[in-house]
Input
Amino acid sequence: MVALLVPATLLGFSIGPAVVLHEGSTIVVVLNAFRLLAFRKTASQTLFKRLSAAFTVRPSSPTLGSLRPIFRG
Output
């Protein structure tokens, strides 16, 4: 941003365009932050789905019901 403002000042531009550029760049930063927040949420949901699928008890695995007779003593 400084690379644009210094030449604009030297060329005699008023402060109006500088304010517009500054506020425009602020909006770009905020939109990028929202994009990153949405990406993290989606990525964490995908990771949660993968982990829950990895630790899901499958029908071929012994379940708690099939292990109860062993623990009854």
In short: Residues 1-56 form one domain. The two ends are 75 Å apart (CA to CA). Helices lie at 2-10, 15-54, 64-71.
